[in-house]
Amino acid sequence: MKVNWTGFSKKNPAERLQMLKEKGLLQDEHWQLLDSQQTLPLETANQMSENVLATLALPYSLVPDFLVDGKSYQVPFVTEEPSVVAAASFAAKIIKRSGGFETEVHKRQMIGQIALYQVDNADRAIKDILMKKKELLEQANQAYPSIVARGGGARDLWLEPKEDFLIFYLSVDTQEAMGANMLNTMLEAITLPLKDLTGGKSLMAILSNYATDSLVTARCVIGYRFLSRDTAEAELLADKMQLASKLAQVDPYRAATHNKGIFNGIDALVLATGNDWRAVEAGAHAYASREGSYRGLSTWTADPDKRQLHGQMTLPMPIATKGGSIGLNPAVAASFDLLGQPQAKELASLIVSVGLAQNFAALKALVSTGIQAGHMKLQAKSLALQAGAQGEEIAAVASCLTVKKTFNLATAQEILADLRKQDK
Ligand code: HMG
User: Fold this and answer.
1) Does residue 405 surpass a pLDDT of 90?
2) What are 174-191's pLDDT values in tens digits?
3) How far is the CA of 345 from the centre of ligand 1 (A)?
4) Separation CA 115–CA 329 (nearest Å)
5) Which of 204, 227, 251 is nearest to 302 (CA)?
6) pLDDT tens digits for 90-117?
7) What spatial distance separates the first Cα and last Cα of the chain, rounded to whole Å?
8) H-helix or E-strand containing 310?
9) Assigned CATH class of 109-208
10) Which residues contact 120 (CB under 8 A, 6 or more apart)?
């Protein structure tokens, strides 16, 4: 069904939910759950973690109409930061007009490692282990038969001597799971045979979050005409975005902020789908440093002849659609409903595309109006709320604040006090 999303942001939460229900984008059960605002019962929270006292809520938003590999997604975002949802929605709209995102899932396997030490003859140990490769992979699979039954399992192993260590790596097809328990169980099961084969000791056996066997690439091509109606301004914007992308390759101070902007979107969707955002962040930041210095994860290249701006980003995306807290948190079930129950590869493609979109919006704002114009317009609402504004006062205080020279809580409080005096 074709849905007109224009003005979605101007509706109130109940109207937005009603629209999703009417358009058949959200099942009744999940509509009721989100509408009741009781998304995580304390009893469930108490099962998910330890020493639980309460739950901490965050805004649960929607970025509509994200076109990835020819399919439109309604994307749930969990974030507290003003303008992240607005920026992603804005980018989704422009990139959709230009044909959307195309993605490539290079592989989907997780890597784990066993750090062996005090191995007297590393070369000999490597040879002996590789001779037993088939048996070791079988032993790993026997330790976790359910993943083999689902079509996954241990796929490869290799070794690398590094200083005091001989490091053993195992790569596992984890199917729809993130696979931490799976990998750790398999690794612990083959630690003893490895010690026997090498005569060495084992320091630890653990999954690696540097998920280089789960790389995903997202690409988009944006026609200059979608950057600005003014031809010269569009050209300038494309050139400046290319330069901004270069800056993030040469300066780690800029690269960290550039990548933070990417994670504004990625974390919001990773959180909404109940995935482990620490794992995703750790893997991606390690990947950003793979050439020896920390760099921007995305690149933007201007093609003046075709009048197109090309965006591209590759990063590890070890996410799951099953396991962990995914089946426990009812709001996460609503997210999967909104997304159309994607498989792990499809979700990973969407997440990387969201990161690239978020980066596009941030760079476009940075090299044109500056970040304050859009971001602060929305930040003003937060300051108005913190100052104690209620109902219609919120918009009034926010609007006065955006034209003031000092943009802070004290100014918001002064504006609110003046407003209330005038109303008396
Ligand atoms: P604009 O051109 O003023 O937007 O940009 P507009 O009012 O013309 O609206 C265009 C569309 O944007 C709307 O279409 C919505 O889709 C969306 P409509 O629905 O009206 O047909 N939109 C909104 N959606 C939801 N709520 C809203 C809203 N406003 C617009 N309130 C915009 C305004 C904020 C989009 C733009 O200025 C922008 O993208 N700025 C970038 C903001 C940003 O990146 N914020 C993240 C926080 S800053 C940060 O942490 C990262 C950073 O440091 C990273 C880096 O340095 O690389 C910047």
Assistant:
1) no
2) 999 988 999 999 999 999
3) 28
4) 35
5) 227
6) 999 999 999 999 999 999 999 999 999 9
7) 51
8) strand 308-316
9) alpha beta
10) 199, 200
Distance CA 26, CA 152 (A): 31
What distance in Å separates the CA atoms of residue 134 and residue 103, rounded to the nearest whole number? 34
CB burial class (10 A; 0-12, 13-18, 19+) of residue 352?
buried
For 19-77, write each residue's pLDDT tens digit.
999 999 999 999 999 999 889 999 999 999 999 999 999 999 999 999 999 999 999 99
CA 38 to chain centre: 25
Distance 261 CA to ligand 1 centre (A): 13
CB-ligand 1 contact for 292 (6 Å cutoff):
no
Q: What is the domain class of 8-106+214-368 according to CATH?
A: alpha beta
pLDDT in tens, 117-143: 999 999 999 999 999 999 999 999 999
Output the six-digit token pair for 212: 């280089």
The answer, yes or no, to whether any atom of ligand 1 lies below 6 A from the CB of 94, is no
Is 12:324 a contact under the CB 8 Å cutoff? no
158, two tokens: 């290799």
The CA distance from 123 to 134, in Å, is: 19
| Cβ(265) – ligand 1 distance below 6 Å | no
Mean pLDDT of the chain, nearest integer: 94
319 pLDDT above the threshold of 80: yes
Ligand 1 atom at minimal distance to the Cα of residue 378: 31
Domain residue ranges of the chain, discontinuous segments joined by +: 8-106+214-368, 109-208, 373-423
> In this structure, what DSSP letter does residue 226 have?
G
Q: Residue holding tokens 């995703």?
A: 280
Rg (alpha carbons) of the chain, rounded to whole number: 25
Mark 52-84 as b/e (b = at least 16 C-beta within 10 Å): eeeeeeeebbbbbbbbbeeebbbbbbbbeebbb
Q: Give, using CA atoms, the residue closest to atom 58 of ligand 1.
A: 362
CATH topology of domain 373-423: Helicase, Ruva Protein; domain 3 (1.10.8)
Cβ 311 vs Cβ 360: under 8 Å: yes
